[in-house]
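Below is a filled-in request sheet from our internal design queue. Each sheet records the structural input a requester submitted and the sequence that came back. We keep these sheets so that new team members can see what a complete request looks like end to end.

REQUESTER: design group, bay 2
PRIORITY: normal
MODE: inverse folding
CHAIN LENGTH: 192
BACKBONE (tokenized):
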């Protein structure tokens, strides 16, 4: 009898099918979203771009927001105090709560500071549903980010819930591009 990786993880209790972040991310798959990363003025805190627009970071932001975690506010508050720790790619002189949380390098910096930083490997068993993974896209080196799903692809890899230009999708891309970072970010105690 062949036991799949999913079945063996369940047997040993290494993850739960009721992972709230994964469930929230899977809900994102039900929305039609046009890929649009343009700058927009949004409310603060709990601000969001129009529901029918978004990029890869918005999958992460909206999934956590469904759990009561406002990455817009958390990233902004950290940048107010630690602006020099965040990338200076955009020529900003101060934080901007309209856009900072929607930039992959800023989320990478935030997660590196406040999440569990996990090893990068090419072994599927090193990744768990609910993990956050970022990449640099092959051919362009553009940053990208997604959430590890609890669904396996035919390849035996975890599917990734992300938006790479066609709206939220669940796809077998875990090892398709160069992995830049790997995190596990739990809902902060004060927000539960």
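RETURNED SEQUENCE:
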């Amino acid at each position: 009898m062949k036991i799949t990786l999913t079945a063996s993880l369940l047997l040993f209790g290494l993850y739960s099918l009721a992972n709230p972040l994964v469930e929230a991310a899977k809900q994102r798959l039900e929305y039609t979203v046009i890929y649009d990363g343009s700058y927009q003025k949004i409310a603060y805190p709990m601000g969001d771009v129009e529901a029918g627009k978004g990029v890869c970071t918005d999958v992460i932001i909206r999934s956590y927001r469904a759990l009561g975690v406002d990455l817009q506010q958390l990233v902004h508050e950290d940048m107010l105090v630690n602006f020099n720790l965040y990338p200076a790619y955009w020529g900003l002189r101060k934080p901007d709560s309209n856009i900072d949380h929607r930039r992959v390098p800023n989320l990478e910096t935030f997660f590196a500071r406040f999440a569990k930083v996990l090893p990068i490997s090419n072994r599927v068993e090193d990744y768990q549903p609910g993990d956050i993974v970022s990449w640099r896209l092959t051919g362009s080196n553009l940053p990208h980010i997604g959430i590890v799903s609890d669904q396996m692809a035919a390849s035996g890899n975890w599917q990734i819930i992300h938006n790479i230009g066609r709206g939220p999708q669940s796809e077998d891309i875990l090892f398709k591009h160069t992995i830049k970072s790997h995190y596990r970010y739990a809902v902060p105690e004060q927000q539960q």
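SHEET NOTES:
- Confidence is low (pLDDT under 50) at residues 1-17.
- Residues 9 and 15 are 6 Å apart (CA to CA).
FILED BY: M.R.
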